[in-house]
Write a structure and sequence with these properties.
By secondary structure, the chain is of the alpha+beta class. The chain is built from 5 helices and 15 strands.
């Protein structure tokens, strides 16, 4: 089973009698639909509806949850959760030492990891499992094999399936959940009660006003660095995120992409001509009408 140690990821635990109620009231994910043994994406938003923290959430027992997030923002994430704690009976803590491993493909060698596999629900047509272990990382697995695996192959897989993550593909505080496909990936509960930023997210959903979307980028030669603007006739339409050789992810204005396609204009990433495609699992499409494409 190909795998990768994700050294830039860690775990935040939330547990206690009020654990589920507490998280259900502040996060985008609908915990009523979160089954044992699976990890769903989600976000804690600003009141204005932008992604303040993104994560994968899974159950760790009764009223206990793991929130896998970026290690570099974990302390800030814990502090933000504490602000919402009030009188709730919950314990919130960052794991001092957490091993986060992702594996994909055949399950035949899953036994090489000591922990129970958690299915990454963002992936629809390939089995992706996450393994969480609280042991210190010493560079080797329990059976002596190299632990790092193949992080480059993991990034290529994530890109191929259109799975965006903060830091690599967008900056926290800059994107709405729809921009990064949380609405499509099961990261937003549209039928649950209120949560932080819910009014903005619901309005975007019901009005169908989402225009910035994650797209898969491909080219005939190596893509430039992440952060490079995508342009049409020297006008910006999006920004390049993660790359793996000739493929990558971008968040782009789909109305402007459609206008360029209709007009036969090339989309450029610096001096590299690129093609843009909607992830195969996503249900949104390019808008049929391009009127108003210049609207901010």
């Amino acid at each position: 089973m190909p795998h990768a140690l994700l050294k830039d990821r860690t775990l935040v635990s939330v547990s206690g009698p009020d654990g589920e109620h507490f998280l259900q009231n502040i996060l985008t994910t609908d915990l009523d639909a979160l089954a044992a043994g699976e990890a769903k994406p989600g976000a804690l938003l600003t009141p204005q509806g932008k992604v303040l923290f993104d994560f994968l959430i899974s159950r760790a027992g009764e009223n206990a949850f793991r929130l896998e997030c970026r290690a570099d923002v974990a302390d800030d994430f814990v502090r933000r959760l504490m602000l919402y704690k009030m009188r709730a009976k919950v314990e919130i803590a960052k794991a001092d030492q957490a091993l986060v491993i992702v594996a994909w493909g055949s399950d035949s060698t899953a036994s090489q990891f000591d922990s129970t596999p958690i299915a990454d629900a963002r992936f629809r047509d390939v089995a992706v499992k996450r393994f969480y272990d609280g042991r210190p990382y010493d560079g080797r697995t329990h059976d002596g094999a190299a632990e790092d695996g193949d992080p480059a192959a993991w990034q290529a897989l994530r890109i191929a399936h259109g799975i965006a993550e903060s830091g690599s593909d967008y900056q926290l505080g800059d994107a709405f959940p729809h921009d990064v496909l949380l609405d499509e990936a099961g990261g937003i509960g549209f039928r649950k009660g209120c949560y932080v930023g819910q009014e903005v997210v619901s309005r975007m959903q019901h009005r169908g006003t989402a225009r910035r979307r994650v797209l898969i980028v491909s080219a005939e030669r190596a893509l430039p660095a992440p952060g490079t603007e995508l342009t049409v006739d020297e006008r910006p339409i999006g920004t390049l995120g993660s790359t793996a050789g000739t493929t990558g992810l971008a968040i782009a204005r789909i109305d402007r992409v459609k206008a360029a396609l209709d007009a036969g204009q090339p989309v450029m990433a610096a001096d590299v001509a690129v093609s843009l495609a909607i992830p195969a699992w996503a249900k949104f499409g390019f808008p049929q009408e391009t009127v108003g494409a210049e609207e901010a």
